Amino acid sequence: MVEQNKGKRQELHLLHRKLLELSGVINVESFDNEEFLLQTELGHLTIKGQNLHIKNLDLEQGLVSIEGLVHSLSYIDPGSKSSSKGWLGKLLR
Fold first, then answer.
1. Percent composition of the chain: helix, strand, coil (DSSP 3-state, to 5)
2. This protein's superkingdom (predicted)?
């Protein structure tokens, strides 16, 4: 698994569960005030919380800042049937 991600980089900074700064973001697939789905260099990332909103977005640099109360961060395993159905369902909304 480490070999697959060689040369790819992502940093996550979470401050007081209220400000999340991410690098390595390729695209914002979907979002609302309770959940974000991001395509990153290391796979799809789901962020769940309350009152979530984008503070800054710069996809050319791969940077995203999200404000709100963060409850969880979860990478979606592409081989997982339950997870892939969840993110695919979000994409087809």
1. 10, 55, 35
2. Bacteria
CA dist 67 to 25, 76, 81, Å? Answer: 16, 22, 30
**Separation CA 12–CA 6 (nearest Å):** 18
Handedness of CA 68, 36, 61, 44 (dihedral sign): positive
CB 22 within 8 A of CB 41: no
pTM, 2 dp = 0.77
Tokens for 57? 């977005």
Task: Tell me the three state secondary structure of residue 77.
Answer: coil
